[in-house]
């Protein structure tokens, strides 16, 4: 897959040594010329990923509405109105669905993994279609029921699996197969969050491990097509509503100081994910562990309903400064535990929004103390913290900054503080040799 050379031996386009933190470094020279047939496959991948992403979001919202009996409004409002006993019962049911569902899926489909990272970096871009689509559907169902996992894992997996099937049909070589699968994964995420540029950069910086114009064009094409296709069903506005935040000296100094702390938090978060993934159950344990863990999360949701779901509502509340300090402290401690526990139980799901939520909680909490000494717009603290933790956890600073810009669309004035915080977080995480949240989920060789 790497042409017999290690990452340290790869050369970047300028002739220097390109050493990246992802284990998937691919040199542009390794990818043969992109033929007209390949570009047809890129277009097809974008269309299929957009349709799959839209369909999966419909399934997610249907599961949420049925579980908590609501028709409109936010997920958190529905959870709060559902009552304590219903939260516990809903999570217990989600655990049962997860355990039985994945056990049956493995029995039906047989051996074979369904992790995008493993497929790209270890399996030459191969993904089993039935197993992957089944995993994606189960993932969004349990997230809709309240599992503390990200929703992006399902569309990423579906997009990559569909691209892999197209590669089988077209009999692509390994380099083109990996490129097309990565484009499918990025397109799947881009369409459900309405972040075409961020999705393309995630494809390059995280999944392919190199920023190259030659590889950027198919990634951009697939993500833009998928996003446009998903507009037929999904909203076209930003994911988060953020008040207009102007540049201030207070926010700039805060960003410089918070960056290293965000990096340390990201290091701890990645290590928690690694431990959880290493202790995932196998065999019959997969039937029991999700039920036990999800029920425990449901019990925690009795006093803290914000723990349920992927964390989108937590982020929105911090961006609009609607969370008091005691609740921020509790959620900053409990949300990572709920997410890693859910992942460690054997359930499949994403980590993108839970990571943003963790960073936003840190930024909002420290910002509340900071503003007493040097006032600044409250939304800026949460956005800066979210971007810094996301960058260090993904080991993708450029993608993280662009993703935050696209997710909010109102924080252009925060660019300099944002970059200061991201730089500080990246320096700390790299100093401590921290991998990304995606590479720690690779199976041991």
TrEMBL record:
Membrane topology, from the record: Multi-pass membrane protein
Transmembrane intervals: 38-68, 88-109, 215-234, 246-270, 282-302, 314-334, 346-366, 378-404
Residue ranges of the region described as Disordered: 1-21
Main localization category: membrane
Compositional bias ranges of the Basic and acidic residues kind: 1-14
Record keywords, A-Z: Chloride, Chloride channel, Ion channel, Ion transport, Membrane, Transmembrane, Transmembrane helix, Transport
Lineage, top ranks: Bacteria, Bacillati, Actinomycetota, Actinomycetes, Kitasatosporales
Entry annotated with the keyword tRNA processing: no
Record InterPro entries: Cl-channel_core, ClC, ClC-type_chloride_channel
Record bears the keyword Membrane: yes
Subcellular locations according to the entry: Membrane
Name of the protein: H+/Cl- antiporter ClcA
Signal peptide limits: none
Pfam families per the UniProt record, alphabetical: Voltage_CLC
């Amino acid at each position: 897959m790497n042409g017999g050379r290690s990452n340290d031996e790869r050369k970047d386009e300028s002739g220097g040594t390109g050493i990246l933190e992802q284990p998937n470094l691919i040199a542009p020279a390794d990818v043969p010329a992109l033929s007209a047939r390949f570009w047809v496959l890129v277009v097809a991948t974008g269309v299929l990923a957009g349709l799959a992403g839209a369909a999966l979001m419909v399934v997610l919202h249907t599961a949420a509405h049925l579980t908590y009996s609501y028709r409109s409004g936010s997920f958190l409002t529905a959870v709060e109105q559902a009552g304590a006993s219903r939260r516990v019962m809903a999570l217990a049911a989600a655990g049962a669905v997860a355990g039985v569902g994945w056990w049956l899926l493995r029995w039906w489909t047989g051996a074979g993994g369904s992790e995008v990272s493993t497929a790209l970096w270890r399996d030459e871009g191969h993904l089993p279609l039935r197993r992957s689509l089944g995993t994606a559907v189960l993932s969004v169902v349990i997230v809709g029921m309240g599992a503390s996992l990200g929703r992006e894992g399902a569309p990423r997996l579906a997009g990559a699996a569909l691209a892999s099937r197209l590669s089988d049909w077209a009999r692509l070589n390994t380099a083109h197969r990996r490129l097309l699968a990565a484009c499918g994964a990025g397109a799947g995420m881009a369409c459900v969050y309405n972040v075409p540029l961020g999705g393309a950069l995630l494809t390059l910086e995280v999944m392919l491990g190199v920023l190259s114009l030659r590889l950027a064009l198919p990634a951009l094409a697939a993500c833009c097509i998928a996003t446009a296709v998903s507009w037929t069903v999904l909203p076209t506005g930003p994911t988060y509503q953020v008040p207009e935040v102007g540049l201030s000296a207070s926010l700039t100094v805060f960003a410089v100081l918070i960056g290293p702390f965000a990096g340390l938090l990201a290091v701890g978060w990645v290590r928690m994910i690694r431990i959880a993934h290493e202790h995932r159950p196998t065999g019959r344990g997969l039937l029991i562990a999700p039920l036990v863990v999800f029920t425990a999360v449901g019990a925690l949701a009795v006093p803290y309903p914000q723990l349920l779901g992927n964390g989108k509502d937590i982020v929105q509340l911090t961006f609009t400064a609607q969370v008091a300090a005691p609740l921020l402290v509790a959620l900053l401690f409990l949300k990572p535990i709920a997410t890693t526990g859910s992942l460690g139980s054997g359930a499949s799901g994403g980590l993108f929004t839970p990571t943003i939520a963790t960073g936003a909680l840190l930024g909002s909490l420290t910002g509340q103390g900071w503003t007493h000494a040097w006032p600044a717009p409250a939304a800026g603290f949460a956005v800066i913290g979210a971007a810094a933790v996301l960058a260090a956890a993904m080991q993708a600073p450029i993608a993280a900054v662009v993703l935050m810009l696209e997710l909010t669309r109102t924080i252009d004035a925060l660019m300099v503080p944002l970059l200061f915080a991201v730089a500080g977080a990246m320096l700390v995480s790299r100093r401590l040799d921290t991998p990304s949240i995606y590479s720690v989920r690779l199976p041991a060789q």
